[in-house]
Each structure stands twice: as C-alpha cells, then as structure tokens.
Amino acid sequence: MLVAVALQVVSVLALSTITWLVFGSMAAASLLAGGMAATVPNALFALRLSLNKGRAPESYPVVFFLGEFAKIGLTVALLALMVRWADLWHWPALILGLVVALKAPLFAMWMLGDKT
Predict the structure, then answer these.
(1) What pTM, to 2 d.p., does this model score?
(2) DSSP result, 11-50
(3) Per residue in 36-87, pLDDT tens?
(4) Vertex 45, ends 97 and 38: CA angle to 5°?
(5) Does residue 113 come out as left (phi exceeding 0), alpha (psi in the -120 to 50 range) or beta?
(6) How far apart are CA 94 and CA 10, in angstroms?
(7) With 0-12 CB in 10 A as exposed, 13-18 as middle and 19+ as buried, what is 107?
(8) Taking a C-beta distance cutoff of 8 angstroms, is the pair 93, 27 a contact?
C-alpha cells in the first residue's frame, strides 16, 4: 500500500514538473492540486490500515470499508473546495493530476506483480 502512495506522489510530482516546464506555473499547480486531492486521502487510508496490523482479523473488513468510505469522502471534499476557488485553477491540468494519482496504484500492482 505504501508503494502505491509513493508511486502516486512520484507520478504527480514528475508530471507536475514537466507541466511547469511546458505550460507554466498555473497549470503545474493545478495538476499538483488535483493529484494531491487523491494522494493525501490515500496516504491517510494506508496509514490507517497499517495501524490496524496485529489486531483481531475480524476487525479488518470494518476498518477497510470505513477507511475507504472516508477516503472517498475526503477526496470529494477536497475537490469541492477546489471548485469553490474555480477561477484559480487550470481545469484540464487539475483533472489530469487527479486521474494520474488515481491510476498510479494500478501501475504499482502491475510493477510488483506477485510480490505484494
């Protein structure tokens, strides 16, 4: 799980750096904000799951589903805050950052294969 979060951070930062060089600071900041809207809740979710290790196995599904619900809610809340400041964002870059951050864990699973 932590590998997926690290890959999210690296992917968003790398793409944001490229965006800054090509399109400027507003697009790069928007891409970074969109990526962090998914990365921060995912990191908190991973932290919560890691804190649950060693507890009764019966608690795992409850912790997972409540954590997933909280992660989705926090992502939506962060995006809603960004919509409130709609004039400050470059929307295509923000959406691209969000998509890159959301798809990075899939690439982590693909890269690690059966090692997880």
Answers:
(1) 0.84
(2) HHHHHHHHHHHHH-HHHHHHHHHHHHHHHHHHHHHHHHHH
(3) 999 999 999 999 988 888 788 777 888 899 999 999 999 999 999 988 887 7
(4) 10
(5) left
(6) 16
(7) middle
(8) yes
